[in-house]
Specification:
Layout: E1 9-13, H1 19-32, E2 39-42, H2 51-63, E3 68-73, H3 79-91, E4 96-100, H4 117-128, E5 133-138, H5 149-162, E6 166-171, H6 175-187, E7 194-198, H7 204-214, H8 220-228, H9 233-253, E8 259-262, H10 269-277
Parallel strand pairs: 1-2, 1-8, 2-3, 3-4, 4-5, 5-6, 6-7, 7-8
Length: 279
Amino acid sequence: MSASPTLPISLEFFPTKTPEGADKLRVARAKLYQLKPEFCSVTFGAGGSTQDGTLQAVTEIMAEGYSAAPHLSCIGQTQASIRERLAAYRSAGIRRVVALRGDMPSGYGSGGEFRYASDLVEFIRKETGDAFHIEVAAYPETHPQAKSPLADIEAFEAKVKAGADSGITQYFFNPDAYFRYMDDLRKRGIDIPVVPGIMPIGSSSQLMRFSDACGAEIPRWVRMRLQAFGDDTASIKSFGLDVVTALCEKLQAGGAPGLHFYTMNQAVAVPEICGRLGL
């Protein structure tokens, strides 16, 4: 079945570190804009290592005519540093942010003045009122550092109570995990939109590495097929398109409020998937 042409999509990019990378990203964005994204988000390096690149990419996207949302991570940040960043975002005309705890450094002890993403959301609301639409992260397969699935749901609930407007999930390949998660949220009276995060499959080694790091489960049958393809990148990409398109069809049929694509700064797989979906 094909998806409704009105299903909103959003796109995630990461800041580049070289002028050549920035040029390639501009070309990729120009191709992806044909999909008419609702907004584009730009990630924030661990400990804020790419924060200037984040702001630069966001202001470029806005100059290109699209809404953009910088990621804001609380690890290693102080109230003063976040206040300064929020002021910079407001003066740049930014109206949406993605508030995250961020990657926890090993031996975490002094990660900054915000312990949880809910603390950051609460601070943004207190400082800026309704100036920003606040997106937060959601984990249908449970955050790898959560004590339990219930504790993870409670952490999301804390972010909503602190003032989050909507959620974007970690990527996943099992649609049932998303639908069960949404049922669990609704049982607790949480009704903000939670958009599924979608990771196109372009490289099996990269996917395995990312998934092991972030706790996203690759179904055994998918993992086995990818491993069987070895270095046959054409087969990996073709199989990946089939798997991810089928996932998106199930999510759309089940009433997902949109799709958020982790583009990896590439502009090949996402337009192909959206074309198959009729978006």
